[in-house]
Design brief:
- Helices cover 36% and strands 18% of the residues.
- It is α/β, with parallel strands linked by helices.
- The protein has two domains: 193 residues, Periplasmic binding protein-like II (D-Maltodextrin-Binding Protein, domain 2); 131 residues, Periplasmic binding protein-like II (D-Maltodextrin-Binding Protein, domain 2).
- The strands form two sheets. The protein has a six-stranded mixed beta sheet with strand order 8-7-6-9-5-10.
- Strand 1, helix 2 and strand 2 form a beta-alpha-beta unit.
- It is globular, with a radius of gyration of 20 Å.
- The two termini are 21 Å apart.
- 40% of the residues are buried.
């Protein structure tokens, strides 16, 4: 069925779970409609949303961890269909934390050390390990890895792993990474969520990269990588029933994103509670080009290829994937509204 034919029929009801992003907000109230769809939007915390979608399939469409999606795809578990829509992107130099008295000043010095992660298959940790290995030459197998909750004990992996030969990962069920870092039992922590001592201003813990923004800017300029954290995914039965939905959802998300960028560029009004935002956007465009937050495969090829390589090298994916395997055929070619 074509999108035009679908538009003549009754609208398909869909429930979307997603975070509170300005580049999605025009979908919330229907300012940007999804053609042929009666959209019900749920704005939920990340952990709750991911759990309810990945483990219980509660929503038709949801924001979801990129790492979990590719791990499942590499196991030929195709219950979810990801779209090349990327609501969350964050550089990860800022996500490496060390004990202030541990003597570690440079990334290379993490070789052979004890490093904690909240989950081996956390998207942020995959990028951080890829950064250490590919930019600083750290042998990831030399590190003694520990997996535990960041600020509370008891966190566990959500997908099955097949770690490369020689990698050592110890699961710690009764301690948090923050406690172990403060006690000197870990030399560093890689985490999207900061350890509690950072939030509390505890001087015993610091970021490895003090000027992380400068390091991230140089990294982006050198590599062309802008890390993708989350994607939008559909339950497969929804996609297979009405495959035209993939393109219509993509178009709506892309239009909402373009409208958000226009608001950010506006010097005449403050749509965001931040000073100098248009200047920040101009700086981003000087680095990334006119579209600093693109959707689609081709515009993100460098980042996607790097992430899929890291995920395979680190045992999150059981086999090497390509973007063409991950995303549906309807959205393979470059598309702009």
């Amino acid at each position: 069925m074509s999108p035009d034919s679908a538009a003549l029929m009754a609208k398909v009801p869909l429930t979307l779970a997603i975070g509170e992003y300005d580049h999605v907000r025009d979908l919330f109230d229907g300012t940007v409609p999804v053609a042929g769809v009666d959209l019900n939007v749920l704005r939920l915390p990340v952990e709750e949303m991911f759990y309810r979608f990945l483990l219980q399939g509660e929503f038709d469409v949801s924001e979801v961890s990129f790492a979990k999606i590719v791990a499942l795809a590499a196991q030929d578990d195709r219950q979810f269909v990801p779209l090349p829509v990327f609501p969350s992107r964050v550089f990860r130099h800022s996500s490496i934390y060390v004990h202030s008295d541990g003597g570690i000043r440079r990334p290379e010095e993490l070789a052979g050390k004890r490093v904690g992660v909240p989950e081996w298959a956390q998207t942020a940790a995959i990028y951080s390990r890829g950064l250490l290995a590919h930019e600083y030459g750290v042998d990831l197998a030399s590190i003694r890895w520990h997996q535990a909750g960041v600020n509370e004990p008891g966190r566990h992996e959500k997908v099955a792993l097949e770690l490369p030969s020689g990698f050592r990962l110890t699961v710690v069920a009764d301690r948090s990474l923050s406690d172990m870092l403060l006690a000197g039992e870990l030399d560093a922590v890689l985490s999207a969520r900061p350890p509690a001592p950072i939030a509390a201003g505890d001087p015993r813990v610091r970021r490895l990269f003090a000027d992380y923004r400068g390091a991230e800017f140089a990294y982006a300029r050198k590599t062309g990588i802008f890390p993708i954290m989350h994607v939008i995914a559909m339950r497969r039965e929804i996609y297979e029933r009405d495959r035209w939905l993939a393109m219509n959802l993509f178009k709506a998300f892309d239009q909402a994103r373009v409208r958000s960028l226009a608001r950010a560029a506006d010097f005449t009004a403050s749509f965001f509670p931040l000073p100098w935002l248009p200047d920040e956007l101009r700086r981003a465009r000087a680095l990334f080009g006119s579209d600093p937050w693109p959707y689609g495969i081709e515009a993100n090829r460098t980042t996607l290829d790097a992430f899929l390589r890291y995920a395979f090298e680190q045992g999150v994916c059981r086999r090497q994937l390509t973007s063409e395997e991950v995303f549906p055929p309807e959205l393979q070619s470059t598309f702009r509204i």
